[in-house]
Amino acid sequence: MAPTPGTVRPNARKPRVRKPAAVTTKPREVALSIRGLVKRFDNKTAVAGIDLEVFAGSLYGIVGPNGAGKTTTLSMVTGLLKPDAGSVFVHGHDVWANPVAAKRKLGVLPDQLRLFDRLTGGQLLYYSGILRGLDKASVRLRSADLAAAFGLENSLDRLVADYSAGMSKKIALAAAMIHSPRLLVLDEPFESVDPVSSANVIEILQRYAKAGGTVVLSSHTMNLIERVCDSVAVIVNGSVLAQGTMAEVRAGNSLEDRFVELAGGRRAAEGMEWLHKFSD
Amino acid sequence: MANAFRRTPWQIVGLVLALVYGLGTAFFLAAGLFALRFFDVELARSAVIVFGSIAVIVFAALPLLLGIEDLLDPRRFALYGMSNSRLAASIAVASLISVPALVITIIALAQITTWTRGPLPVALAVASAVVIVLTCVLSARISTTLATFLLSTRRSRDLTTIVGIVIIIALTPLIGLLASVDWTVDGAPTLSAIADVASWTPLGAAWGAPADAAAGSDGSAVAKLVIAILWLGLLALAWRALVGAILVRPTRQAQARQYNGISWFDRFGATPTGAIAARSVTYWARDARYLTNLAIIPVIPAVMIVALLVAGVPITVLALLPVPVMCLFLSWSVHNDVSFDNTAIWLHLVSSTSGRADRIGRLVPALALGIPIIVLGSLLSIAVYGDWSELPSLIGVSACILLVGLGLSSVMSAAFPYPAVRPNDSPFSQPQAGGSSAGLIQGLSFFGILLLTAPALAAAVLGFIYGGLFPLIALVAGLVIGLAALAGGVRLGARAFERRGPELLAAALRN
User: Fold this and answer.
1) Which of A154, A176, B82, B226 supports an S-S bond with A107, CB 3.0-4.6 Å?
2) Which structural domain, as residue segments, surrounds residue B122?
3) Is A79 at the interface with chain B, CB within 8 A?
4) What is the pTM of this model?
């Protein structure tokens, strides 16, 4: 096992461990560690004690049915929702005890939250960059690179309010990356993004992971997670039912079959005979 | 539709309030119409026609101005596969069951009692009542459907808001003009002249028919009823055509405008404070919710001055009023600023933006407007007032109000946010999430400003009476208290913002 994340001091042992970590015998650095995370809303338990370890350099998928607690978990990981119990460490920094250090290493794409949409795409990128403490010149440079990478060059001067859902997602994703964080936490990053763009995004994320960055992303598109991620966790009813490398979790099946099995199996489609007798 | 009753508790409360308010208005007007039964024919005729025409205008225009979301939009029924005529008729009948339709029905029935002065007037009044109700409901239907269709893009919604504000501002002098007519002497002839014209238009024809019969001119009475019925027929045809047309037309697409570069962001420093200031200024200039606030701020003192002028207060004294009043509402308008961001505030949380940067950045637009208002406005006010020794008082009190207000708002918006109009909603719409706290917080921040300004204001009043050094005391007291309150407010607000980040987002999610 890796050294307990609470005691890891990345500053002390950081001298560029940027080589692909898989071949070394040294234990891989833990990028994100979640311990005993619990969240209740009124009487309903949304997250019932989740423990996860994500190693640096991996593309980690979180899958689960609707309402399983994926977004709640990721909100607590990113400092947007206060957990009732448990702790979250980003490269050794506690998100809730030492937020400034932890959040500097964190890039976030939340799901279903608004953007400052009366800004143009370019302004939103600039705004995110400056709030993250970048200087003007590097914001300019990175905005141009990100816009080119996400295919938004011609849309930077339009209001985000006039963007399509997919474009909003892409500009938010670009804004999450502008300060070159070590860990990206992306909630449903591919929802309503067209296939060409999502292929681009996947390539960007894979190169980022190869350079030592870590990506945690949630989705309910199993094929995509199976294709892109090297590790995966299955969350159902606020608990982790399986986690590990993709091969371990799949256990010989496709991820989709394994997921349906874990999530409670298929409902037998009986009693719907009327659907097969058409009304005209 | 009975569906109106099957909603969340707060919506039911809203509906009940609307019902009580609507029925209250209706019964008040109905009582008036009943009372008119005992007035002479000429006066009753003028009153009924003028106010009836206004009611018809209100029915047709209100949906356009308010941009109400249409629950009976024909498009919603497009997938049920009804014929156009049947759909048009069904929706028209369904819209008879609504609070406004109930109100107009009561008024139309009451109008019959006004004309119980013979068989022909009563018969015509009954026919008119039916025509009036149907005309109002159909007009409202048509304009609501048009509004929903035309205002489906964001920019057109913003535009309507601005147009609405301009109309409201334009109406202010009109009200002053109407107030200037000496109603006790010229009232009846003025009203009668308006009624003569209005009763030949579709607006007043239905109201005029029984009135003319009661006055003895049967010929013009029948002619007016015919006009009213023809108009109703036209409306029905228009409605039928509109339903047919709108079902096959795609939703309007906005053509996006291009904005060049990052404008305000270049003019402020590349620090978090500068970026937040630039973002705030951009929002004040671009977002209809802020523009509405901005447009209303000069209207408030204008209305106050008109009212007080009518009451006989001399203009020289009233000249001292606008600057402090505008400062009061300008600084007060930002006391719920965080809620205006709605859930977009997450960006400030994940980038661990310092509370100070957030607080100060948000105050920049109000300061940038307030300081010139104080300097130029005070000079102008005192020029009208005539006594330059009062200048320090006016500046002191106004600056105190602005600075104290901004300080208090800094604390309030971070510590006690309450639901605000969401981004892209109509500025006149009510926030979905109800809450009893909103009124309390609004009142608290308002009277907090007045309380902390009291010393400067007291000195200014003493200076107004005794002169001497009091104006200077007002200036110094105002600036000292104001700056202290601003500094303290930003500090406290910053701490609240940093501590309560996740609560602010949770509050926005409930909004």
Assistant:
1) A176
2) 2-247
3) yes
4) 0.70
